[in-house]
Recover the amino acids of this structure.
């Protein structure tokens, strides 16, 4: 188990038995192995938060060794900081730009986030009247937002029954329909050769263009099994490239997901987050399929990560759109389409508490920048927890809680190393593409083709800002990207800022 995920054991809670429901108890010991952020009782959310995030010397040492090691690599290769090294060649270009981007957003979403916390607080106070054991503080605390977001979402739709509209087969038809409309391609099941796939439940899709023929292949490794890592991802087996004989080598990629294997009488039904992941990962796969670069090391997703998430995040806009959803989602038993109030409420649920959610992402990204940048050496001799606390208190709407070290549980500091901001920046671009080309008509073939030719086809062979400018007709400066993300919130949020 990864060190950031190790459980913290804790005994003697002395709490109402009703509240302890759902916790992991072994003999006299209750284990806190997650934040329990969706637990209905605040005492449990609070305890879990305080215990799970309690500073741990061993992890702090590992983190500081990693960051110091990264600083050494940066110095040896002629960079001031690891962030500076990590950002070379990206859309953002430099740590200063990333910091500006994040700080500008933080400033512009502060009021919206504050309003959302006020709404959460009023729900909390209502709850206190009816069920006092489940509320402890009158303020919104850092362990509250996921619970209240989920609470409001559940009022809009029933998680169990909405899944009935999203059988895997129907969702694949949905993807097929979107790609057919945008790019004139279809996803066709082909039988793998003997010994070609690594497990019997993997299927192979040929991505076929109506006039250009087969553009590439996707292996769909969709189902959960024992030895499989529990992470959704896309990876390339080999990229597209122009061969010496003038023939184009077709891209081959894998989509690795963790859906439940279908039962004897029920198909695989996707939860809303799984549906979104499916569309997201297919966004990556199509980036690879539609790439037509000369060299394979710069094809498809092989581009800077703050740009690589653009096609996948764009697909999340498609799958949140009622016109797209109603064109494919239907009940697996009755065939009844997802429509009317049920459909609208489901779409609404995706627009709840966006400001506070973005504010949290901005805070995470700033911590990642600070740790990999010059914050520590420039300011004063402080611990990583001090940096975390300062950033949280300055940029996040809910203050830091003493003796908690959230950064020691944030595994993304390892994998992203100075690039956690990438999702926000990619979203800034993707949302602009959505508004400019697909918001009026998510099935627009002409705009789909334009998006393919100007952006997807080039992978990382040209600088991301060149590709974005060619498509959008405007240079993606930090101001433009900030404005785009703020506009996205303005348009989508259910709560006017
Ligand atoms: Zn992605």
């Amino acid at each position: 188990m990864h060190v950031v995920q190790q459980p913290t054991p804790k005994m003697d809670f002395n709490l109402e038995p009703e509240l302890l429901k759902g916790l992991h108890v072994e003999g006299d010991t209750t284990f806190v192995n997650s934040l329990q952020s969706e637990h209905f009782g605040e005492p449990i959310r609070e305890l879990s938060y305080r215990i799970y995030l309690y500073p741990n010397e061993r992890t702090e040492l590992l983190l500081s060794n990693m960051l110091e090691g990264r600083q050494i690599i940066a110095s040896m290769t002629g960079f001031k900081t690891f962030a500076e090294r990590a950002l070379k060649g990206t859309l953002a270009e430099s740590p200063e730009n990333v910091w500006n981007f994040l700080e500008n957003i933080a400033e512009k979403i502060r009021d919206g986030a504050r309003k959302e916390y006020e709404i959460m607080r009023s729900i909390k106070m209502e709850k206190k009247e009816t069920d006092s054991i489940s509320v402890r503080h009158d303020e919104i605390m850092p362990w509250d937002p996921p619970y209240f977001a989920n609470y409001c979402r559940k009022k809009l739709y029933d998680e169990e029954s909405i899944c009935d509209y999203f059988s895997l087969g129907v969702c694949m038809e949905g993807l097929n329909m979107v790609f057919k409309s945008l790019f004139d391609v279809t996803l066709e099941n082909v039988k793998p050769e003997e010994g070609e796939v690594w497990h019997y439940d993997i299927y192979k899709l040929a991505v076929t263009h109506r006039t250009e023929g087969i553009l590439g292949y996707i292996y769909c490794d969709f189902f959960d099994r024992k030895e499989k890592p529990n992470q959704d991802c896309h990876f390339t087996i080999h990229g597209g490239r122009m061969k010496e004989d003038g023939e184009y080598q077709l891209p081959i990629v894998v989509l690795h997901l963790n859906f439940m294997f279908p039962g004897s009488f029920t198909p695989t039904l996707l939860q809303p987050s799984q549906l979104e992941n499916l569309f997201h990962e297919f966004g990556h796969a199509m980036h690879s399929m539609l790439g037509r670069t000369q060299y394979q090391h710069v094809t498809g997703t092989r581009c800077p990560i703050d740009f690589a998430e653009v096609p996948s995040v764009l697909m999340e806009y498609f799958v949140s759109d009622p016109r797209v959803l109603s064109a494919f989602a239907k009940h697996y038993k009755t065939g009844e389409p997802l429509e009317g109030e049920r459909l609208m409420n489901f779409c609404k649920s995706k627009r709840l508490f966006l400001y506070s959610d973005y504010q949290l992402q901005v805070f995470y990204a700033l911590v990642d920048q600070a740790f990999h940048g010059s914050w520590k050496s420039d300011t004063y001799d402080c611990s990583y927890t001090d940096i975390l606390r300062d950033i949280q208190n300055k940029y996040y709407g809910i203050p830091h809680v003493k003796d908690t070290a959230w950064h020691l549980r944030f595994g993304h500091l390892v994998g992203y190393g100075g690039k956690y901001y990438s999702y926000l920046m990619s979203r800034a671009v993707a949302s602009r593409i959505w508004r400019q080309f697909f918001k009026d008509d998510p099935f627009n073939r002409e705009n789909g083709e334009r998006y393919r030719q100007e952006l997807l086809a080039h992978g990382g062979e040209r600088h991301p800002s060149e590709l974005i400018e060619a498509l959008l007709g405007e240079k993606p400066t930090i101001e433009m990207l900030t404005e785009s993300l703020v506009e996205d919130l303005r348009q989508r949020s259910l709560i006017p800022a």
DSSP finds 21 helices and ten strands in the chain.
